[in-house]
Amino acid sequence: MTYKPYGNHAILIEWSSKIDKNILKDVFFFKNKILQNNIKVIVDIIITYNSLTIIYISTIRNIYNEILILKSIYKSTFSQFKPENYSWKIPVCYDPKFGLDLEEISKKNDVDIDSIISLHSTPIYTIYFIGFLPGFLYLGGLDKRLNFDRKSNPRFVVEKGSVGIGGSQTGIYPQNSAGGWNIIGKSPISFFEVTKKEPCFAKSGDTVKFIPISLEEYQQIETQTKMGYYQLEKELLND
Amino acid sequence: MIKVLSSGFYTSIQDLGRFGFGDIGVPVSGAMDQYSARLANHILRNNDTDAILEITLGKCKLLFDNQSIICISGADLSPKLNDKKIKQNLTIKVYKDDILTFDKLIYGVRSYLAVTGGFQTEVILNSRSFFKGITNEHILKKNDSLSIKVVTSDVTKPFSSIKINKQHFTSTTIEAYPGPEYELLDDKQRKDLEKMVFTISKENSRMGYHLEEIIANKLDSMLTSAVLPGTVQLTPSGKLIVLMRDCQVTGGYPRILQLTDDAINKLAQKTTKDTVKFKIIPLL
User: Fold this and answer.
1) pTM > 0.90: yes or no
2) ipTM for the whole complex
3) For the segment A103-143, what is each residue's pLDDT rounded down to a tens digit?
4) Which one, of A175, A158, A7, A53, lies nearest residue B249 by Cα?
5) Between chains, do B26 and A50 touch, taking CB under 8 Å as contact?
6) B60 Cβ partners below 8 Å, 6+ apart?
7) What's the Cα-to-Cα distance from B216 to each of A26, B89, B124, B235, rounded to whole Å?
8) β-pair type (B107-115, B60-64)
9) Hey, is the C-beta of A67 within 8 angstroms of any chain B C-beta?
10) What pLDDT shows up at residue A179?
11) How many helices (H) and strands (E) does chain A have?
């Protein structure tokens, strides 16, 4: 692990550069230990695959002293923190109406559409972190057979809820956005709602499974989501 | 209340930013030039965190519906009150039916209008800063109404003299610390970074400024990691992108420099075709 200053009001902590569940666990655990210490000058802690970026409200007076404090927090064994992580079941409609690129990637990669859907909806994906757009989940665990190159011409607008594959990654667009991923389906649920106490239901360390749904079910869930009474299925993860 | 008669090129409500939601992908946002935004609030004896109006490049026309005290700082966009030129960095009393205009750009890019008590637009996730997908609007539109406080007291005695540091608008030197991936650069790249004059491309916005000149580069993208306003990214093609206040929270290009706060503020007053030179300063 390395600690380095990132400008004069942030500290970057990095683990080895790979996507690995054990690294995520350590990153996540460290973040929560820092949160527990309730350090007033820390305003944001950003998690990625192998890093924590700790952002301070203003210039850090003695950055090396601050790093020492963080190191001692990392080493401290006392922790009441028990991660409450959930596994989420995310409904996705893979109908060609939404799976705009299913046919093209099926032909290009010589995999039939049913296999793409089944390979995509079988794994349990780990949420590594949230970035790119508010509520965009970075997921790990895509089947290697579904590693499809990004589109050579990105779409100007990818609709909110669209489920895509870009290289070795898969994800859901939480809002309308430009994007170059291959779109294979759409989820009727909201991944980011500013009016909620917790605008994004998911967090780093949770898991996701995609549940294929029909067009009719899509419409039902979409209506229920709009009315505000759709309940996502979740289960507490036992570690 | 202020009624928007003409919204201008890009006008938005901003404060010092939205903190604490980076872990769910919410950008920081906030006034691009926080030196000028703070100054306007300071002159009015507002709080630093009070929301101001950020007016980019002019062509903005506002109608006051109540009495208030205002202050304008930042870029000089020839502000006029009822067609009479007014001074910046001073407290000015306005009355019902007064019309404030920002028109021709004299220097800088972004001007800040502060009102006593701050703009009272909705607070979302602890901030009033406009951002697409977070606040209802991301830029002002014609006929919008902005809630402000009625202030009938007299203008507070002005500070004896506020001398604006013109360097803030004219200096082309942008100070930066080495970024997390600076050490991956070779000697030639490091020298080029400090030697070259960079031109701001037409792709410049609240999210980031693309620079035109290219640095010979063999560095690839990296595993996605956090980025901050003021981070200078080096793309595989050798182009530099300076991230600004509305930037995403994560990115995958090497972060070779990190601008100082002052440098972000200075850059926010520059636009297409303006040139800058980096001055790299040690972290301690």
Assistant:
1) yes
2) 0.92
3) 999 999 999 999 999 999 999 999 999 998 999 999 999 99
4) A53
5) no
6) B4, B6, B7, B8, B9, B11, B77, B101, B102, B140
7) 37, 44, 43, 10
8) unpaired
9) no
10) 87
11) 5, 14
Beta carbons of B62 and B92 less than 8 angstroms apart:
no
Measured in angstroms, the CA of B250 and the nearest CA of chain A are apart by 6
For residue B258, the chain A residue with the least C-alpha distance is A7
Residues in chain B with pLDDT values less than 50: none
| DSSP reduced 3-state for B208 | strand
Location of structure tokens 């190159």: A149
Instruction: State whether residue A41 is helix, strand or coil.
Output: coil
Asked if the Cβ–Cβ distance from A57 to B19 is below 8 Å, we say yes
pLDDT for the residue A132: 87
Residues in A touching B134 (Cβ below 8 Å): 134, 194
Characterize the bridge pairing of strands B250-251 and B225-226: antiparallel
Cβ atoms A166, A182 nearer than 8 A: yes
Mean pLDDT of A142-164: 91
Question: What whole-number distance in Å separates Cα of residue A86 and Cα of residue A20?
Answer: 19
Decide: B230 and B243 in contact? Cβ < 8 Å. Answer: yes
> Where does chain A have alpha helices with state H?
21-37, 63-75, 102-109, 113-121, 215-227
Q: Does the distance separating the beta carbons of B259 and A131 come in below 8 Å?
A: no
Q: Which H or E run includes B191? A: helix B187-195
Distance of CA B265 to the CA centre of its chain: 6
Q: Which residues of A touch B24 (CB under 8 A)?
A: 130, 134-135, 192, 199-200, 203
C-beta separation of B72 from B110 below 8 A: no
